[in-house]
Write a structure and sequence with these properties.
This protein is globular. It has two helices and twelve strands. The protein is 14% helix and 37% strand. It has one domain (6-142). It has helices spanning 6-14, 122-132; strands at residues 17-19, 24-26, 33-40, 46-53, 61-67, 71-78, 83-84, 90-91, 95-98, 108-110, 135-137, 140-142. A hairpin with a 7-residue loop joins strand 4 and strand 5. Strands 10-9-6-5-4-3-1-11 form an eight-stranded mixed beta sheet, covered by helices on one side. It has a two-stranded parallel sheet with strand order 2-12. With 147 residues, it is mostly beta strands. The longest helix is centred in the C-terminal third of the chain and has 11 residues, at 122-132.
Length: 147
Amino acid sequence: MMVLSQTEADLLLRMEKQREDDQGWQYPQLGGSLRIPLISLDEKESFMLDIARGRINLEKGKLQNRARSVIILARLDYGGAPHRNPDGEEIGGTHLHLYREGYADKWAHPVDPGIFTDTRDAMRTLKEFMQFCNIVVPPVITGGLFT
């Protein structure tokens, strides 16, 4: 398993990212997922934007930003079950995981309503997540009927 220092992880999350190409993407249907490649502006670091939808619950989903293929820098879980942190604290159904040295993505935090304004709106939440992850040239993603 690849391990980053907290400083490296924080720098990677703050690093400006852009879409790898001009390919268009369709927001996934229920139970579907996408993996969209991203790169740093200097093209020295590669990232991935993962989007996943729940199979039954329209309001359940996961947005994730990975570095170096396997390191989860940030993951927003919304519309699902609560999360229990390693210290036993339970965080509500909508929560944000951030990389923590020694724990990877095992710790979650309550979402800031000033950053994620309405997680029932999938396209708005995606836009806000991309802003949070500093994706300055986002991929072109179109919504579907149930997005």
